[in-house]
Specification:
- The chain is of the alpha/beta class and about 300 residues long.
- It contains eleven helices and 13 strands.
- The strands form three sheets. Strands 8-11-9-10-12 form a five-stranded mixed barrel. Strands 2-3 form a two-stranded antiparallel ribbon.
- Helix 5 packs across helix 8 (about 215-220), helix 5 (about 110-120) crosses helix 9 (about 230-240) and helix 8 (about 215-220) crosses helix 9.
- The longest helix is centred in the last third of the chain and has 15 residues, at about 275-290.
- The mean pLDDT is about 95.
- The structure holds 1-O-phosphono-alpha-D-glucopyranose.
- The site of 1-O-phosphono-alpha-D-glucopyranose has 13 residues, from strand 11 and helix 9.
Length: about 300
């Protein structure tokens, strides 16, 4: 892969969000808030902090609200200005200024690999990032930046990895390979959602990737895999054999916001980082752990 800049990321956002019904009946799961910020805004902010210029959101039916979130909300902004709510106005306006968001449709739910392939013509001929909206990573250096740095160093596609307990391996793509340093492996094996007890390692793929554009040709050919879907992991396994692929154990705290418990943890984590919420939330949690129930 050439040392071209990574200036675009793809965010697949076409999933139905069935794990969060009924909330997701009419609200895209990407807009469910962590405290008061939609999950997809955390993802876009991570990309922006890593110097990404274009964000390509691959969405499906009923997801136009995602586009609206990153657009100028003219009426709302006018009202806020008229009412002298400058801080809120600035905060809101900054969201539309953050980056260019291009939206396109995945017309059929054929899998993550297919969603990424839908973005091929918009991504163009350069390496690009992929960020999955369910995986929130709180890190000093944005996780996608860590992967971009690894890509620059190795000149090959990079996937983010994290140790998981063996019983959780069937939920993930699992990677195995030869250690290059403390954080990096040269991947030789990749399995999407291995059957219990068959995972080749305990290193799970977490939703951050920097990929060469050659992945698109691979994804056009890859047959449906687990769940009858075109799996990104299966495409990456081909890439690992042909061009080589790097696995990078990122630094940072990851939350699976696509899981109810992970979503609650993320809410608590990000709320505790907010000065105005930290003390009252801790005080409330103390009342719970003291066994006293809620007192007001
Ligand atoms: C997807 C990928 C999987 C990866 C996971 C990370 O699975 O297919 O390889 O480990 O994201 O969150 P999903 O969670 O969409 O089933």
């Amino acid at each position: 892969m050439s040392a071209a800049e990574v200036s675009r990321v793809v965010i697949p956002a076409a999933g139905l969000g069935t794990r969060f019904l009924p909330a997701t009946k009419s609200v895209p799961k990407e807009l469910l808030p962590i405290v008061d910020v939609p999950t997809i805004q955390y993802i876009v902010e991570e990309a922006v902090r890593a110097g990404i210029k274009d964000v390509i959101v691959v969405n499906g039916r009923g997801k136009v609200a995602i586009e609206d979130h990153f657009d100028i909300a003219f009426e709302l902004e006018t009202v806020l200005r008229e009412r002298g709510k400058k801080e809120l106005y600035d905060q809101l306006h900054a969201i539309s200024d953050m980056t260019r968001v291009v939206s396109l449709r995945q017309k059929q739910p054929l899998g993550l690999g297919h969603a990424v392939l839908c973005a091929a013509s918009v991504v163009g001929p350069n390496p690009f990032g992929v960020i999955l909206g369910d995986d929130l990573i709180d890190a000093e250096v944005p996780a996608i930046q860590q992967l971009i740095d690894a890509y620059r160093k190795h000149g090959k596609g990079v996937v983010a990895l994290m140790e998981v307990p063996p019983e959780e391996a069937p939920l993930y793509g699992i990677a195995a390979g030869r250690a290059l340093d403390d954080r990096t492996i040269a991947i030789s094996q990749l399995v999407e959602k291995p059957k219990p007890g068959t995972a080749p390692s305990s290193l799970a793929i977490i939703g951050r990737y920097v990929l060469p554009p050659s992945i698109f040709d691979v994804l056009r050919e890859v047959p449906p895999g687990v769940g009858g879907e075109i799996q990104l992991t299966d495409g990456l396994a081909v890439l690992a054999r042909t061009e080589g692929l790097i696995g990078y154990r990122f630094e940072g705290r990851r939350f699976d916001a696509g899981d109810r418990m992970g979503y609650l943890r993320a809410n608590i984590h990000y709320a505790l980082k907010r000065p105005e919420l930290r003390e009252p939330l801790l005080a409330y949690m103390r009342t719970l752990t003291n066994g006293g129930g809620e007192r007001r």
